[in-house]
Design the sequence.
């Protein structure tokens, strides 16, 4: 009888242990599901540094002398004779009127072609020839654009036989200009050119913007200042 009781007690103990194990497992699962959540605060973005604004620097006397010599060169002088906000709007007839440093007298053998094209009987004054190729190279060097980029009409006489433009003019009205003042900001120069006293007010002063390049300067804009 005692033996039977011992067996029953043993079996009951096993059942109770199994029940405890079943109830403990969900508790462990619940505990595992309640692990602490670690919140990560967003890192503060570094403050952007304000970009320093470059101020224009006034030209020195030596620089003004340099640009006086610059604008008196024939290849540069014509770019201050018309008004334009962008290079494409320059008046090419004004640029080339004084020769621009590469205009050449019309050859004798081309005079008959020119007279026929213009319906003139004879040459009554000087005439300069400007090859199309030379004009295009000149504009690329001085403005950074090509001939076809120009927006103003260019109505000089063109001869297809020579692929050149011609202009007959007796007086180029070349005026000596000086750089009176100016400033530099980076590679950009804003210059004020004034005429010699003998030419004022026939020729007014100008505000000319140019940009320094690897091989010289590009003209960006020019405005004639109509002073009283």
Sequence:
């Amino acid at each position: 009888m005692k033996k039977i009781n011992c067996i029953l007690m043993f079996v009951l103990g096993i059942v109770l242990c199994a029940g405890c194990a079943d109830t403990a497992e969900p508790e462990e699962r619940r505990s595992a599901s309640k692990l602490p959540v670690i919140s990560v605060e967003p890192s503060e973005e570094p403050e952007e540094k304000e970009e320093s604004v470059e101020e224009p620097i006034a030209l020195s006397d030596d620089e003004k002398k340099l640009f006086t010599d610059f604008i008196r060169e024939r290849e540069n002088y014509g770019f201050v004779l018309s008004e334009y906000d962008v290079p494409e709007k320059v008046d090419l007839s004004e640029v080339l009127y004084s020769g621009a440093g590469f205009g050449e007298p019309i050859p004798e053998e081309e005079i008959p072609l020119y007279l026929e094209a213009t319906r003139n009987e004879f040459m009554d004054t000087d005439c300069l020839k400007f090859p199309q190729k030379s004009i295009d190279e000149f504009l690329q060097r001085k403005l950074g654009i090509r001939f076809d980029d120009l927006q103003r009409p260019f109505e000089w006489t063109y001869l297809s036989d020579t692929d050149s433009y011609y202009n007959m003019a007796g007086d180029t009205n070349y005026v000596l200009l000086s750089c009176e003042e100016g400033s530099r900001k980076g590679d950009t120069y804003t210059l004020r050119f004034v005429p010699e006293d003998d030419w004022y007010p026939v020729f007014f002063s100008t505000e000319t913007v140019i940009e320094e390049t690897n091989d010289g300067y590009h003209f960006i804009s020019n405005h004639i200042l109509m002073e009283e």
User: Anything to note?
Assistant: Residues 121 and 199 are 35 Å apart (CA to CA). Residues 1-8, 14-35 have pLDDT under 50 and may be disordered.
